[in-house]
Amino acid sequence: MPDPIVTLCPTSEIPEGSAKSFEVGNLTIAVYNVGGQFYATDNECTHGAASLADGILEDDVIECTLHYGAFNVKTGEAVQAPCFTALRTYKVIVEGGDVKVDMDKTAAD
Question: Buried (b) or exposed (e) across 82-98, using 16+ Cβ within 10 A?
């Protein structure tokens, strides 16, 4: 079984207040830098097939540019219509200046 912890990039590749998407196996996840803390969710909006990493990150909320629904990046909770279904979150580990995700754990774990 492959290691569930995947190294994505150096922390410097995701400046504060921005997001970036990554392919991990057959999934695409988005990683967000909120005040120097990193969070990860599925990248695809649960309302429409749009990349959240291309959205607008304001504090801990990412707004999808397709229909302007929004999610809390810390919890995955849908916080603005037309989005009602939460995003899956992933546990982020910052180690040695790198951003890593544990694909087997949620942010709450």
Answer: ebeebbebbbbeeeeee
Question: Secondary structure of 60-109 in the HEC alphabet?
Answer: CEEECCCCCCEEECCCCCEEECCCCCCCCEEEEEEECCEEEEECCCCCCC
Q: What is the CATH number of the domain that holds 56?
A: 2.102.10.10
Domain containing 45: what range?
Answer: 5-102
pTM over cut 0.70: yes
Mean pLDDT, contiguous 10-residue spans, the chain (109 residues): 88 98 96 98 94 97 95 97 96 97 92
State in Å, rounded, how far the first CA of the chain is from the last one: 21
Query: Given the structure tokens 């969070």, which residue do they identify?
Result: 39
Q: Are strands 98-102 and 5-10 parallel, antiparallel or unpaired?
A: antiparallel
Omega of the bond leading into 4 within 30 degrees of 0 (cis): no
Asked if the structure places residue 98 within a domain, the reply is yes
